[in-house]
Amino acid sequence: MRFLEQQFVRSAVDRFRRYELASVFGDVRINVVDVGSRGGLDTCLLPIAWLVDAIGFEPDPQEFSRLRNGSPGPWHTVRHLPCAVAGQAGLRTLSIPADPIGASLLSHDPEIGRRYKVEHLFSVEKTLPLEVHSLDDVLQTYGAPFPHYIKLDIEGAELEVLQGALLSLARTIALKVEVSFIEQRREQPLAGQIIEWLTQQSFRLMELRDPISWRTEIGPPHPLVGRSAVPYSRAQLVQADLVFLRQEETINSLEMLPGIAISCALGFFDYAKALVNRADQDVFGGRTKEQVSHLITVASRRCGRRQSMQAIAASVRNLVPLVRSAVKGLP
Fold first, then answer.
1. Which end is more exposed in the chain, N or C (fewer Cβ atoms within 10 Å of the end residue's Cβ)?
2. Alpha carbon 188 to chain centroid distance?
3. Distance (Å, rounded) from C-alpha 119 to C-alpha 109?
4. Residue 10: what pLDDT?
């Protein structure tokens, strides 16, 4: 499975560069901010990677050192900053559990870990005092441009970071925000609060991606059947990534090309066409709106066929464990 995921990532890199639509983008730069870049930068914009200038934030010194010394990979440029981002400047404490992927500026609730048998994400083993800053302040301090795309994955502090990034959000076209549906950390804002606040900032919720669900008893995920005391059970939705796009009417002409590129990379081709219709004619370097709209149609068709083939492959790949679970249960 890991091999197949790696192949998918490789095939996604610069995919749109092979399309005629790429000539519409020219040398436009897509400014990306990834807050919580442990493990590497967000991959959602890989189809337009050659256009992306990315900034990653990682306050953990060891992980930052690893990221800083790595190659930029497929991206046009990559810059990592050892900064902790929060809603406003001050001193905070980063709580790091046994599995550092669960590190958070908020206090963990160990009862959640016990209930869902994920103690490694909630048993804090060390703490790290941090000086934190708002996203707007950090970008201005380092002379970095405000982002077109923001990805937030910081285990509960997402809403406060957004609230401290109003200047950044004024230029932002798309966001991917990890949200929680249960209070994993104490006083953690939940998904509904984040959706409501971003809606007020003229963003539209487009998609829920990569949902994670937990059971109180260990067992295989729906629809598989195991051999445990509870062989089958649906699980509770715990967290997911939410994708937001700015409302089309609030995007100015300077952001139209980045908006079209980003929305196509994310798969929202109808949104991209809506931006084309709203754009000034001179945005497209001599092409008419009808010509650009046609190129989006061609790219949409090619991507749709690819998605169909991937769905077929996934169905075939999942058939064997489905049959095994139905006949005799999984270990």
1. N
2. 19
3. 10
4. 64
Radius of gyration of the chain (CA): 21
* Token duo for residue 285: 């370097």
C-alpha span between 154 and 34 (Å, rounded): 10
The CB density around residue 100, as the number of other CB atoms within 10 Å, is 16
Name, in order, each residue with C-beta under 8 angstroms of 162's C-beta and a sequence gap of 6 or more: 152, 169, 177, 194, 197, 198, 201
Residue bearing tokens 């958070």: 104
Q: CA quadruple 199, 40, 82, 51: dihedral positive or negative?
A: negative
- Report pLDDT digits (tens) over 86-99: 999 999 999 999 99
Residue 146 Cα distances to 110, 139, 170, 180, 188, angstroms:
37, 7, 9, 26, 26
**CB-CB contact of 75 with 54 (8 Å):** yes
Contact 238, 210 (CB under 8 A): no
Token couple for 133: 């800053």
> Which amino acid makes up residue 54?
A
